[in-house]
């Protein structure tokens, strides 16, 4: 019965994996990729094995059972693939004990399979110099034996000839003693010939080995001299390259990921807004209008704009809680646990609240209650409005921490004294935001760590939070004074919600009960791009006062991130953080993403101004 090949055996001879053995199950696989790409079946170190291409070579399997065969081909590598010292062109047959080299002087390894099929044998070895010498020794011994036989025959013929000439009678044949003597003499000659042959072989190997050693030594010296010359020429060329070009060559996204992924965190939060005077949560009233429930808004008198119908009551549990929740990103900037993120991630009540509760709403006109004994408001018929209409832009600009008007539960009149909203008398209620949940999760970690808000920036979308960690944390390096140029390469790390998520099924045992639960593995995502544009905040020059509609930001070409990546680090090609990933904007199907300059985050670490 045919035994199927179960695995490929790779024995590494040199490179970063020297002296390691890999066993690769065959199963149903038909191809085994080789390269520095981490998804390769035979993967090499991205830094230590730099001569290896990301996709260097390919081992392909054809046939089954005893008819199985293996083919090796180069995958368009930069430095070539070599089989037993010969460069591979096209697809070549691969046999057990073959040596594969990835690039000249690159990593080497031998190939084998287990179990070997009966018809799958190693290559035939060619007889070398030593084998030829041994053959000559055998022939020399055979010649010595032949000489002994010939000598015995010659002696017998001579004796017979003398007797025929009438000389003194001689013995016919050879006596026993004579035969013994001749055999002894020939054996001595054979031994001497054998000894001479062996001595000749030994001398050949000594002289040949010495010559081979010196030849190899001279070849190594020649190669070493060539390598040193090539390195010198390379160093000279690099020294002539401008510094900004070297900066752009810099660290690759994978190198930044490997070094700083564990310093990039996912931030989970949930906050609510409270009335500062009573401590009660702020509610946004909803109205049942023509069979559907909408958030309610109030048109204030005296051109004071449109505001939310805020109340402290929720008897029917139908109102909307003013607050928010979700996840963002951040990064460790000190070994003691200080983390930078966006203000809209860590303190949502300090930024514009938007149109929570839907695009549409019900608008009521505020009616001043007439003075007198009967204080009853008269309402106009409410109307359905589209909050995206420019007439209601005030709704999007409201910052919860700035306070607002609290209305009665049943009619849109203020619950404060005076009833009429009046910004001059400051009869708005004061609100305060509070994080109900603020925690961070590290790359590859299952558990969250509670965090506390330290400070927020008054000038940009940046916030500083703090965790207590018993271990010294890996941190990023910030470059607040580094110049940022349009077109330079950047790398973004974070936890966008759009990324693929990996889960693990875990079983735990508590008090004798086994419980299974599916847990998400927190893993950072890396995205690369360039700086597309730079924009500054309000700036006064001789030509006038300038400002961008997004403030002081960098516009990036990175569009594969989205929500959840807010607060993540933006690295330059030197591996230094130059910005915090922040808001994006969409116009139709086109999207642009922004980053806050890291100088605003660095300022939050300075409790005292210098």
TrEMBL record:
It comes from the Bacteria. Coiled coil: none annotated. It holds the Pfam family FHA. CDD domains: FHA. Keywords: Hydrolase, Membrane, Protease, Transmembrane, Transmembrane helix. The chain crosses the membrane at residues 197-215. Residues 32-88 form the FHA domain. This is FHA domain-containing protein. It comes from Methylocystis rosea.
């Amino acid at each position: 019965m045919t035994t199927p090949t179960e695995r490929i055996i790779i024995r590494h001879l040199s490179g970063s994996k020297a002296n390691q053995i890999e066993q690769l199950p065959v199963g149903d696989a038909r191809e085994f990729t080789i390269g520095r790409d981490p998804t390769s079946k035979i993967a090499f170190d991205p830094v230590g094995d730099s001569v290896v291409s990301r996709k260097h070579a390919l081992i392909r399997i054809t046939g089954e059972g005893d008819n199985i065969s293996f083919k090796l081909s180069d995958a368009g590598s930069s430095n070539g693939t070599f089989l037993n010292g010969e460069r591979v062109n096209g697809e070549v047959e691969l046999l057990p004990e073959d040596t594969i080299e990835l690039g000249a002087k690159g990593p080497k390894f031998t190939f084998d399979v287990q179990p070997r099929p009966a018809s799958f044998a190693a290559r035939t070895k060619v007889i070398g110099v030593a084998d030829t010498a041994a053959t000559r020794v055998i022939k020399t011994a055979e010649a010595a034996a032949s000489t002994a036989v010939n000598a015995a025959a010659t002696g017998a013929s001579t004796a017979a000839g003398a007797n025929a000439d009438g000389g003194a009678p001689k013995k016919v044949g050879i006596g026993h003693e004579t035969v013994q003597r001749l055999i002894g003499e020939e054996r001595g000659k054979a031994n001497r010939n054998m000894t001479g042959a062996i001595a000749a072989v030994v001398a050949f190997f000594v002289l040949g080995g010495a010559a081979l050693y010196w030849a190899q030594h001279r070849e190594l010296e020649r190669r070493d001299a060539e390598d040193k010359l090539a390195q010198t020429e390379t160093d000279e060329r690099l020294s002539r390259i401008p510094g900004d070009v070297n900066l752009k060559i810099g660290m690759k996204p994978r190198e930044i990921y490997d070094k700083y992924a564990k310093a990039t965190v996912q931030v989970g939060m949930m906050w609510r807004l409270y009335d500062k005077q009573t401590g009660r949560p702020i509610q946004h009233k909803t109205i049942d209008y023509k069979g559907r429930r909408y958030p309610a808004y109030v048109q204030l008198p005296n051109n004071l704009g449109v505001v939310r119908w805020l109340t402290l009551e929720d008897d029917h549990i139908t109102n909307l809680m003013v607050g928010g929740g979700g996840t963002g990103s951040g990064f460790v900037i000190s070994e003691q646990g200080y983390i930078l993120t966006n203000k809209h991630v860590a303190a949502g009540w300090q930024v514009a609240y938007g149109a929570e509760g839907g695009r549409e709403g019900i608008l009521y006109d505020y009616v001043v209650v007439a003075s007198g004994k009967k204080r009853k408001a008269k309402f106009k018929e409410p109307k359905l409005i589209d909050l995206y209409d420019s007439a209601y832009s005030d709704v999007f600009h409201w910052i919860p921490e700035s306070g607002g008007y609290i209305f009665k539960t049943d009619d849109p009149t203020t619950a404060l004294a005076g009833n009429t909203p009046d910004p001059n008398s400051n009869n708005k209620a004061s609100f305060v935001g509070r994080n109900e949940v603020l925690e961070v999760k590290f790359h590859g970690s299952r558990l969250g760590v509670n965090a506390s808000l330290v400070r927020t920036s008054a000038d940009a979308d940046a916030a500083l939070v703090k965790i207590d960690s018993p271990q010294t944390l890996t941190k990023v390096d910030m470059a607040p004074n580094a110049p940022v140029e349009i077109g330079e390469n950047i790398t973004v790390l974070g936890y966008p919600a759009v990324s693929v998520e990996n889960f693990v099924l875990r079983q735990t045992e508590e008090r004798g009960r086994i419980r299974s639960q599916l847990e998400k593995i927190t893993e950072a995502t890396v995205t690369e791009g360039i700086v597309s544009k730079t924009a500054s905040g309000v700036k006064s020059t001789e030509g006038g006062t300038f400002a961008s509609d997004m403030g002081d930001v960098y516009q990036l070409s990175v569009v594969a991130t989205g929500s959840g990546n807010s607060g993540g680090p933006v690295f330059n090609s030197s591996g230094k953080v130059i910005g915090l990933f922040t808001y994006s904007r969409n116009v139709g199907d086109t999207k642009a993403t922004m980053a806050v300059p890291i100088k605003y985050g660095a300022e939050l670490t300075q409790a005292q101004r210098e």
